Structures are given as C-alpha cells and as structure tokens.
C-alpha cells in the first residue's frame, strides 16, 4: 500500500473551491418568484382543515388555501389564525415548501415531491392524488381526508 500523499497548500485551496462550486451549483434550492393571486386565471379555494403531521405530533386545526393556475403554478398554504404554518409552492420545473415556525425551507427542481400532502391538493375538495403514496377518502356529506397510504400524516376538510 502506498503512503498517503499530503495535500499541499495549493491543492487544499483547489479542493475546497471545487467542493464549494459543486455544492453551489448542484444543491441550491430554486428561488420561486412571489405569486400574485390577483393575476387572471387563478382559481382560489379556502376552507377549514385539520392537519395531522407525521409521527406523534398533535393535530392542528386551521385554514387551508389552495390556488391553482392553468399554467401549472400552485400555492397551498395551511395557516392558523392567519399565521402560515406550511406554504407549498410549485411552478413548472421547480417547487418549494416553507415553514416559518420551524424557520426552514426545502425545494427542488422538476416535479414537486410526493412525500408531503400539500402538492396532492389542487382544489377543494381535492381530486384523486397524483401519487400512490396518498389516498383520498371522500364520501358525500362527510369530511374528505387525504392520508398517507402508509403512515399517520393526513389533511382533512369539510365537503361542501
């Protein structure tokens, strides 16, 4: 076995620059421009809802806003007393989810993740989810429920 070659000062700087460049270009979450629901074409729905986060977290009762545009843009926001708890945004080619309470945001390029319920809700009451990870239960006269096919997370709201 050959002994490891020490990295000299010139090589360590070059290695750090290469690693930083890889992270800066490959891992950056996309920036999505603010959505203006006053633009023509938006269909906006609002309703009371209950969200049961994954795991042992307690259910939260709040308001659900769902806004969809024919060009593929989507905004879903779950809030409590006008305080946003979760905001999910999708535009063609990019998506993001922000939680001001947790001071966190994630996003990606391409189709929105199907690991969260928010991108499965495009209207109220919601239609069939686009992912096998989620199951919609909707019975006339009873609340609709979009729940994880395996897990405890769900979003529920009244049927009109």
Strand and helix layout:
Blueprint lengths: L8 H18 L16 E10 L7 E9 L5 E7 L2 E9 L2 E6 L4 E6 L24 E4 L6 E5 L5 E4 L3
Description:
The structure is a single chain. By secondary structure, the chain is mainly beta. The protein has one domain (43-157): Lipoprotein localisation LolA/LolB/LppX (outer membrane lipoprotein receptor (LolB), chain A). Helices cover 11% and strands 38% of the residues. The protein has one helix spanning 9-26, and strands at 43-52, 60-68, 74-80, 83-91, 94-99, 104-109, 134-137, 144-148, 154-157. Strands 6-5-4-3-2-1-9-8-7 form a 9-stranded antiparallel sheet, with no helix packed on it. A hairpin with a 2-residue loop joins strand 3 and strand 4. It is globular. Mean pLDDT is 84; it is low at 1-27.
CATH architecture: Clam
Enumerate how many helices there are, as a single number: 1
Label the structural class. Answer: mainly beta
Care to count the β-strands?
Answer: 9
Distance between the termini: 73 Å
Mean pLDDT equals 84
For the record, the count of structural domains works out to 1
Tell me the CATH superfamily.
Lipoprotein localisation LolA/LolB/LppX
Task: Kindly report the CATH topology.
Answer: outer membrane lipoprotein receptor (LolB), chain A
């Amino acid at each position: 076995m050959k002994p490891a070659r020490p990295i000299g000062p010139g090589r360590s700087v070059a290695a750090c620059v290469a690693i930083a460049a890889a992270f800066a270009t490959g891992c950056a979450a996309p920036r999505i421009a603010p959505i203006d629901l006053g633009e023509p074409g938006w269909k906006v729905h609002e309703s009371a809802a209950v969200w049961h986060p994954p795991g042992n977290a307690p259910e939260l009762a709040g308001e659900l806003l769902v806004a969809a545009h024919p060009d593929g843009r989507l905004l879903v926001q779950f809030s409590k007393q006008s305080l946003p708890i979760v905001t999910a945004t999708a535009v063609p080619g990019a998506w993001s989810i922000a939680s001001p309470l947790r001071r966190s945001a994630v996003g990606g390029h391409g189709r929105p993740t199907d690991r969260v319920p928010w991108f499965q809700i495009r209207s109220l009451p919601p239609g069939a989810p686009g992912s096998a990870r989620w199951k919609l239960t909707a019975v006339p006269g009873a609340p609709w429920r979009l729940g994880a096919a395996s897990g405890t997370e769900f979003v529920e709201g009244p049927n009109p």
